[in-house]
User: Which sequence fits this backbone?
């Protein structure tokens, strides 16, 4: 997998899956735009990968526009977009507030629409590109006390298919990687939201055929593959990366 000469935008890149993916894409030769709301950690990641950091709240269209403008200005265009930023609020439909529902949908779903819509014309002008969306195992099947998250990731899964159909004619591939429980800040936050002991929560999450939770680098390898020319005939795919959890 060789990404030399390609430019990539990674959202939610200050930590977790986003950080691991930004690092691996850079290792494979890509120029990376690190987009996140966490300026301190985001700037450190950008420095480490030799890329640039752009402050971006993906729920704000103006911030998304700034990220794309920076990529086009500095690198001449965008070849890879990894729509990775996400949030989770653990609650049932009886418990979820309107504010939490709207926030989860804005970050997890609307941002994919906004950033993809901004990037696709630039990709088409360059002869194609790769868009990778972060779904979830809970976008394929349901999960308990996570109604807004499940709804948002289900939307991302089917948005991926629709986008692959709409933009294949421009040689733009759109795929969705669906992580299982992965050792990130988000997973730790879930334990806090549910008021569960983190060790017990992680142990329960590891109950899957491969017997462990994921590491960010596990997901990053699939992202890098989908970004590369090794995946030139893969589009519209929904790929669980979850140690057979959904199986």
Assistant:
């Amino acid at each position: 997998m060789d990404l030399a000469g390609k430019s990539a935008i990674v959202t939610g890149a200050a930590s977790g899956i986003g950080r691991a993916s930004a690092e691996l894409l850079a290792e494979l030769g890509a120029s990376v735009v690190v987009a996140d709301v966490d300026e301190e950690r985001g700037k450190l990641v950008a420095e480490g990968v030799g890329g640039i950091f752009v402050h971006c709240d993906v729920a704000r269209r103006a911030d998304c526009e700034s990220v794309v403008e920076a990529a086009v200005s500095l690198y001449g265009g965008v070849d890879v977009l990894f729509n990775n930023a996400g949030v989770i609020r653990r609650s049932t439909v009886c418990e979820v507030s309107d504010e939490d529902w709207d926030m989860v949908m804005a970050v997890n779903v609307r941002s994919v629409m906004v950033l993809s819509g901004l990037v696709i014309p630039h990709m088409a002008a360059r002869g194609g590109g790769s868009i990778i969306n972060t779904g979830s195992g809970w976008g394929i099947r349901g999960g308990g006390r996570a109604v807004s998250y499940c709804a948002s990731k289900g939307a991302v899964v089917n948005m991926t298919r629709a986008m692959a159909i709409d933009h294949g004619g421009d040689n733009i591939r759109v795929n969705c990687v669906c992580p299982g429980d992965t050792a990130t800040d988000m997973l730790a936050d879930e334990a806090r939201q549910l008021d569960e002991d983190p060790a017990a929560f992680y142990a329960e999450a590891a109950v899957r055929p491969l017997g462990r939770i994921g590491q960010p680098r596990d997901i990053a390898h699939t992202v890098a593959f989908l970004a590369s020319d090794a995946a030139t005939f893969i589009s519209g795919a929904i790929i669980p990366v979850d140690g057979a959890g959904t199986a």
Remarks:
- The first strand starts at residue 7 and ends at 11.
- The chain has a mean pLDDT of 98.
